[in-house]
Amino acid sequence: MTHLKNKSLILLALLLASALILSGCGTAGSRAAGTASAAQTPSSEGSASPASTVAESAGSSESDAESADESEAFSNRDLSGEYDAGEAVTISLNGTAAEASSETVQITGGTVTITGEGTYILSGTLEDGTIVVDAAKEDKVQLVLAGVSIQASDYAAIYVKQADKVFVTLADGTENTLANGGSFTQKDENDVDAVIFAKDDITFNGTGTLRISSPAGSGIVGKDEVTITGGVYEISADSHAIRAKDSLAIADGSFTLYASEDGLHAENGDDETLGSIYIAGGSFVIQVNDDAIHATTLLQIDGGTFDITAAEGLEATYIQINGGDIRISASDDGVNAARKSSVCTPTFEMNDGTLTIVMGAGDTDGIDSNGNIVVNGGTIDVTGQSSFDCDGTAQYNGGTIIVNGRQVSEIPNQMMGGGGFGGDMGGMRGGWRP
User: Fold this and answer.
1) b/e string for 10-28 if b means 16 or more Cβ within 10 A?
2) pLDDT in tens, 120-134
3) Contact 205, 78 (CB under 8 A)
4) Which of 31, 185, 262, 364 has the smallest C-beta neighbourhood within 10 Å, fewest atoms?
5) Contact criterion met (CB below 8 Å) for 293 and 286
6) Given the DSSP bridges, would you call strands 400-403 and 406-408 parallel, antiparallel or unpaired?
């Protein structure tokens, strides 16, 4: 059964539309100001943008590129978090084992394997075990976490081996805890390295709380698409807090993320057109040792509040900010539009919202682009020795830019080699201050 990847197509269309818009640097600013962010209108489950949208965005007219932004980003089922308790299968976790009255649930010691489509409500404690979803490729499975505590000593607490799509719903008013014991012992052909590990599409929704502890790997890993539309997430991980392969899309939620590597990460090592992140809203506290948010292709932020402490705050080939309140404290670059993919020119684009960056001392940049910088609106406030570093074209078409407490009238650009600055650097006379 062919399964069209709705959000992957949407995000790729957005990426290619942005690449088209910036193909002529001389008019990038005037046209970029008119682009719309991805719509949050829900679609019916299973609907998909036609693949032709991507092709039209990549090689047709400007109007085609803009129409791609009107596509739907989240399905009704992604957003709802609803379930019918009367029709669901109940799985009771009882310390070292579990109980369930359904032929689609197989229990062997601490391993609970779900083999068929449907809704499954889990509650209780599993001292050392794993919930495995191993259903048919066309099956949709909903796991409702209704007050669970699962410890997996050397594996994933939840492992999606196969399904069309899995929905993890956090039941209202419940607190749920998943943890790994400090190592991962591989049990099949898949390199399982996270407390929640999904080989297929996975969506998180609901209004409850999910706490994840991963002292030897990542918190959540999706080898396809990861979608989050609600809930409270507290994740501590030795690797990435949340990692997706094709795309990561967040509509809402509250996130407190601690990680030795990245907070939010999207990367497909086999296809450089994938690996995108789209954030429509939510509340984020991210404290990590590497990048707070890292995408291979497009990183698009339309809303939300962000409190970031990291080596680098935002990193992707194309970074587009259309809204939100983003505060970054960085020891390296605050924002880095780097050449992670050849699909488009590295670009930082600011259309609306507030971006506040405080940089550490040394060879650091507030906003660093290996290609272009386009500012059409919003407010950018940078404190540091080097506020902007642009290898391509810098365009200031609107909005407010403040450097070290003083508003400037154009984008200041650090010269190659760090020997000086160009543009209006009046705000830099006082030097860097913390």
Assistant:
1) bbbbbbbbbbbbbeebeeb
2) 999 999 999 999 999
3) yes
4) 185
5) yes
6) antiparallel
Q: How confident is the model over 263-317, as pLDDT tens digits?
A: 999 999 999 999 999 999 999 999 999 999 999 999 999 999 999 999 999 999 9
- C-alpha–C-alpha distance, residues 325 and 330, integer Å: 16
- Whole-number Cα distances in Å, 72 to 56, 221, 226: 17, 24, 16
Beta strand segments in 260-393, E: 264-266, 276-279, 283-288, 291-295, 298-301, 305-310, 312-316, 318-321, 325-330, 335-337, 347-350, 354-359, 367-369, 372-375, 379-383, 388-390
* Rounded-to-integer distance, Cα 57 and Cα 81, Å: 32
Tell whether the model's pLDDT for residue 107 goes beyond 50: yes
User: What percent of the chain lies above the pLDDT cut of 90?
Assistant: 77
Q: CA-CA-CA-CA torsion for 132, 138, 143, 144, nearest 10 degrees?
A: -170
Predicted TM-score of the model (pTM): 0.86
CA-CA distances (angstroms) from residue 134 to 137, 138, 139, 412? 9, 11, 10, 55
Are the C-beta atoms of 213 and 180 separated by less than 8 Å? Answer: yes
List the one residue out of 412, 415, 348 whose CA is nearest residue 382: 412
CA 410, chain centre distance (Å)? 31
For residue 404, the 8-state DSSP code is T
